[in-house]
Amino acid sequence: MSENKLVIAILIGAIAGIICGALFGPAMSSIAWIGDLFLDTLKMMIIPLIVAAVISGVASLGDIRKLGKVGGMTLLYYASTTAVAVFTGLIVVNVIQPGEGIEQLSEQIPDMISGKQDIGLVEIVKSLISPNIVAAAADTQLLPIIVFCLLFAAALTTIGEKNKTLLSFFDGLNETMMKLVIWIMMLAPVGIFALIAGQIGRAGGIEAIKNELASVGSYCLTVLLGLGIHSILLFILLVSFSRFGKDYLIQLSRALMTAFGTASSSATLPLTMECAIEAGVDKRSVKFVAPLGATVNMDGTALYEAVAVMFIAQAYNIPLSITAQIVVFITATLAAIGAAGIPQAGLVTMLIVLDAVGLPAEGIGLILAVDWFLDRFRTTVNVWGDSVGIAIIEGFLPEKTG
Ligand code: ASP
User: Fold this and answer.
1) Taking residues 204-220, what's their average pLDDT?
2) For an engineered disulfide with 311, which of 99, 325, 365, 401 has Cβ 3.0 to 4.6 Å away?
3) How close is the Cα of 350 to the center of ligand 1, in Å?
4) pLDDT for 319-336, tens place per residue?
5) Model pTM score
6) Domain boundaries of the chain, sorted by first residue
7) How far is Cα 197 from Cα 22, in angstroms, rounded to an integer?
8) Which atom of ligand 1 is least distant from the CA of 342?
9) Ligand 1 centroid vs 215 CA: distance in angstroms?
10) Mutate to test the pocket of ligand 1, among 264, 305, 371 (most ligand atoms within 8 A of CB)
């Protein structure tokens, strides 16, 4: 199937998923397993793909000293775009004030986050390293795997001719994984259909969703407006600082729709990489920037966390001063970095932000019901931020040798 046909097929799958979910409601939860199967197939790819891509990508930069500049620019891109996202969220939520007049305050800490209150910034830093790399892979903890692969690749570039066999092994592994991704991508229309229809079914059908949205509708609109503005800012950045134009958005649309369907940037990573390569981005940038981005660069999550925390403060009628909002700004940025690329991870790391400004964890109960819905939009923005990053960082790569 050609690229364009696949985009159209995925789009039809997504729209049909919404329509069937709306028409048949909870009955659609019986096909949710097909979506889960698609999700698992994508997840199955993640570890071997990341290992092969990061090692062959970093090693292909040639000289370890060159990694410094590319790495520095990548981190600068991540940090600055995430900060802009949080700032945008804070402006939008301060202007709209969606939490004003909310009457039903939650009194219980939701099950999903209970027992996780000891999460903190130290945990985020500690999560960079795992004492057991095999256990980390088994648990799909991507950050320690990436750190290990970066170090491994750096060492590989320093052992001279002896690295040849390993380099060609990881190159071959990477090419093979990308071939598998192309095959799996063909399943996306059906997979995304089932994921969306199944989720609407699990949520109790369109009527139940309408009721949930009605109670916190202006909060949802605030998040969506913020995400929309930030996506446009990212697009402007893409066009101004890379050689890619609006076609890039279309070329990446398969990955973006998969992000919407799966609510997981990690599961979408294989498609993000494949679409960026097909769009013509230098493979070295794709291999290095995409895995790191799917793990730490989450603009949508950062924006959402800032809006959600401000919403909770407004609902509980606890005004947050400018200083407190600066604390929200900093902690939301860090909490988004710490969130894993899996569904609803942002809801858990939001505890860090709530705790930093002294808001009750119970507040999460106010936004829990609509979180699965907003998760899909923020994950799409997370993947869009990663994709734009891949295109921009390409401009900072060293000249190709040999
Ligand atoms: N689901 C998001 C992602 O995978 C993380 C989150 O915000 O919950 O990118």
Assistant:
1) 84
2) 99
3) 12
4) 999 999 999 999 999 999
5) 0.91
6) 3-396
7) 8
8) 4
9) 23
10) 264
CA distances from 123 to 118, 250, 334, 340, 399 (A): 9, 38, 11, 13, 38
265 Cα to the center of ligand 1, angstroms: 6
**How far away, in angstroms, is 378 Cα from ligand 1 center?**
7
Looking at domain 3-396, what is its CATH homologous superfamily?
A: Sodium:dicarboxylate symporter (1.10.3860.10)
Q: How far is the CA of 161 from the centre of ligand 1 (A)?
A: 41
Q: Which residues contact 356 (CB under 8 A, 6 or more apart)?
A: 327, 328, 331
Q: How confident is the model at residue 229 (pLDDT cuts 50, 70, 90)?
A: very high
Alpha carbons 47 and 321: distance in angstroms, whole number: 43
pLDDT average, residue stretch 174-187: 93
Tokens coding 352: 């860090």
Q: Which residues sit with their C-beta closer than 6 Å to ligand 1?
A: 263-265, 298, 301, 339, 341-346, 375, 378-379, 382
Q: Give the confidence band of 40 by pLDDT, cuts at 50, 70, 90.
A: very high
Burial of 14 (0-12, 13-18, 19+ CB in 10 A): buried
pLDDT one-digit tens code per residue, 98-128: 998 887 777 777 777 666 666 677 877 888 8
